Aspartyl/glutamyl-tRNA(Asn/Gln) amidotransferase subunit C
Amino acid sequence: MSAITRDEVAHLARLSRLALGPEELDALAGQLDEIISAVAQVQDAASADVPPTSHALPLTNVFRPDEVRPPLGVAEALDQAPAAEDDRFRVPRILDEE
């Protein structure tokens, strides 16, 4: 027998403004009971001797430190561009003028 009754499912359906038929109420009672059992198993797995963590492995910062450098000049930035015009990148038009 499920721990969640059909009346409890009907109450939840009313609170959620769901119109459920009798067959759906019976089916959802069993499904909700399985979900609650699965959550209970997860809660049982958590142990007091295991510290809570956000990751399974320890993380280290792999980024290099920031270094202030002068920016690229216009000529350097446009040096490898496929097309340039008036000190800007030239790209194909994607919008029509209306």
Remarks:
- Residues 22-45 form the longest helix (24 residues).
- The domain at 6-45 is CATH 1.10.20.60 (Histone, subunit A).
- The first strand starts at residue 84 and ends at 85.
- The chain has a mean pLDDT of 86.
